[in-house]
Amino acid sequence: MTVAVVTSRTEAELIVGLLRNEGLTAVVSADDVGGQDPQLQLEGVRVLVPPSDEARARRLLAES
Among 2, 3, 12, 23, which residue carries the largest CB count within 10 Å? Predict the structure, then answer.
């Protein structure tokens, strides 16, 4: 489930780190050739979590 869409891979990685520090599973999804072509991030970089972690992830993001 997508819990955030941000404008850069760096911001997405920070969010993933926050979620992982809280014990959640989270990954970055971006169509930017593995970060090699950042201008392809125009449609945003997504932070994904499993459905079972979605509610907690949204709460954590709302609090931060």
Answer: 12
